[in-house]
Amino acid sequence: MNEMDELSRFRAEVPDRGTTRAEEIFRAALAKDLSSERRSASRFRNRFRDLPPTWRAAIAVPLALGLAAGVIVAVLPSSATALTAELLADRAAAAALARPAVSAGQWVYERSENYAAFRSSRGFANPTFQDGWMTADGTLSYGAGSIGDPIFPYNKIGSLPRDPAKLNAYFVSLDPAKTDNRSVVEYSQIQSMLFGMVLPPWLQAEMYHALALIPTIQVRQNVKDIAGRAGVAFVLPPTGQSEKLEIILDASDYHLLAQGSWDNPSTPAPSDEDAILKEYLVTELGSTQPSTAPPSAAELAAEQITFADTHLREPPGRFSPGQWLYHHLRSGGKDQEIWATADDAEQAAYVNGTLQVCKRTDPCAASEQWLMPAGPSYSLVYPTYPLLTPSERKQLAKDTVKQRQAALQKLFKANRQVPTLPEYPRPLLNKLNTYSTGCANVAGDCNAVTVTANMLTGYGNRPGTTSNWFLALADVPGVSVQHITDAAGQRDIEFTFPFQDGVTAIMVNATALRSGTVQYEGYVRDGQQTLVLNQALVSGPGVRP
Amino acid sequence: MTYQGRDDADDGLDDAAVIRLSRHEPEQFTVLFRRHAPHIQRYVTRRLGPDAADDIVAETFLLAFRQRERYDQSRADARPWLYGIATNLIGRHRRDEIRLYRALARTGADPILEPFTDRVDDRVSASTACRGLAATLARLPTASRDTLLLVAWGDLSYDEVATALGVPVGTVRSRLSRARSKLRRTLGETPAAVNEESPA
Asked: How far apart (Å, rounded) are the C-alpha atoms in residues A451 and A199?
């Protein structure tokens, strides 16, 4: 027995006590970390990796274009000069200084796009688009709630050193780990503040200069971001502590376009990229209209619904297609209890005290009132994505890194090919219009509206998906929004459509929405309300919640 | 391929992919905890005892979580990274660790094993070999002790130890060879103990 064997046996009798206590401590600390992450604007956060919300010096893009143009001309060099990081920093800084500062209480709207190469493996849409609102002083509030803890305290911005080298040194001094590569620390801090906060022009300018001071920084020209816009980028080459990272600026006016990162530094395009598609001042939270033109009431309501939907602290779990749901409906003063599977392929009801169960494929189907009489199949609305089998997983663990990547790529590709509903309002309405519901005003989206009511009533739904539907409803020509009290005495927000037949209104609980939850209440058809009094997951047909 | 709903990242993704996923879905980081915490817990327990181990393991994963943005994505296996963090944290308790080795070397009773046993005779059963090992471990420079124990208790390869400690592989080799020769000398001084420990 040699000394290493001896050492291996030393204290080998330490029993496995389990990691329960360590896990408790870890989870508690993690929850604390996460709640502060969430508080600082959850919806943007998860898109920007570890970085906080994608807010930075926020100016209407057209405004920036106009104002910056004059200054940029002054710093444009004669044609053939190679673009160094320093030169790019000069131009970006000049452009930043030409933009007006945003005052503290002003709301900024941003729409951004994310593409993540790994994401499709788990069934996410790719790319994803998100909207967000933030004030220039970093307080993001909706209703009564206020949100804190940006990546850097706004009240300390004024006292930051007004010298790029000192700024970098200061950022390095903030790094708690102290073990990281200086360049990585400086770059990460600048990137997260540029993309995550609304900064005064002088600080943006200084940050571009500070980027150019990072010894390893490079410039990449003739870049296109995921939205196809021409750009020029600051690139940080990969190190042991960080993947290859880049910040893309617009090639003509040097405003921020996107940030990207590479899993594999030799591929031409980043594996994960976030692009800012739109960014401008708006009059209020929830509005997407530039501050000159107020949004429609329907757009505001739909945005409010989307906002609440994506901020659900504990989103309900997914329904699998065959799970039974209990529906308590009220229509024309008559109550109805219906059990249906989440995909409405099977229904049940008590007829004269006897539970009758009927499948769509059964002979009884013709006489059944299906909750989903017309519309896309459940699998199109909620596609199931291919995953690895246990044996494939086992194989993957044995594979080399290369084989593993190839296997995962194959899986990603398969996932991309799974059909699903369009995400954007107009394409979604067009798709839903292809299902005939027998209504007359086909050109005015009457089919899409009726199908949306069908899906809301008849399927086991998930937030995020349904909020896309409300954004689409807000785009139906002639839609209006009003506050009503429904037949069950609930205060509702009602989307009203200018049709004579089919579904002419769709209701959402106004009280719940004000407190941040989305609760679908029902629809109006032929002048009559159908209200969803209760919808709940149950263990089987005939079982009440 | 099967078609099923699944919310967990623990479906054949390597550590790098799980960490990448956790940047968007922080909760997925717990997958990493479940994968590696038991081994790291054992490693820390052998160095500092069960109570300190709970705290250090939790802190290791919390620090790792906070640094997940900077994880080197070319490394499919996160063990070296996690062991590196845990080892740094153990460094804060260097005096305690040395005190524990010395106590064992002096008395023959291992304070680390004490909480795990009720029987008095077990406590005093440490072999002469163990006492020698403990005395040597107490005398080793911290960097050598870290290197040695990452190999012996963490089951890391030389490359992985280099990654964990952020030093070149050559440094790992030279530290290890110096530490091993010190151990050999200790054991050489107590041949009887070696026989006693290995009846085969």
From this structure: 45
* Whole-Å CA distances, B31 to A37, B8, B25: 19, 8, 11
3-state secondary structure of A354: strand
In angstroms, the CA A353 to CA A351 distance is: 5
Inter-chain touch B73–A393, beta carbons under 8 Å: no
Q: Burial-class residue A103 by CB neighbours within 10 Å (0-12, 13-18, 19+).
A: exposed
B25–A contact, CB cutoff 8 A: yes
Strands A503-509 and A256-262: unpaired
Name which of B18, B40, B20, B16 is nearest B30 in CA terms: B18
**Tens digit of pLDDT per residue, chain A (545 long)?**
678 888 888 888 887 778 888 888 888 877 776 665 543 332 232 222 222 222 222 222 222 332 333 333 333 333 445 789 999 999 899 888 877 777 766 777 778 887 876 544 444 457 777 777 776 665 543 322 223 345 677 788 889 999 999 999 998 887 665 555 788 888 888 988 888 778 888 999 999 999 999 999 999 999 999 999 999 999 999 876 667 889 999 998 899 999 988 877 888 888 888 888 888 887 666 667 776 544 577 877 887 787 777 655 445 556 788 999 999 999 988 999 999 999 999 999 998 889 999 998 888 877 778 899 999 999 999 887 777 777 877 777 777 767 776 776 777 677 777 888 887 778 899 999 999 999 999 999 999 999 999 999 999 887 667 888 998 998 899 999 999 999 999 999 999 999 999 999 999 999 888 877 888 999 999 899 999 999 888 999 999 98
Cα A425 to Cα A306: distance, rounded to the nearest angstrom: 13
pTM score of the predicted model: 0.41
Q: How far apart are CA A145 and CA A149, in angstroms?
A: 14
Q: Which B residues, 101 through 140, put their C-beta within 8 Å of a C-beta on chain A? A: 110, 112-113, 116, 129-130, 133-134
**Closest-CA residue in chain A for B54?**
A22
Q: What is the ipTM of this complex?
A: 0.82
Can you state the percent helix, strand and coil of chain A, rounding each to 5?
Answer: 35, 25, 40
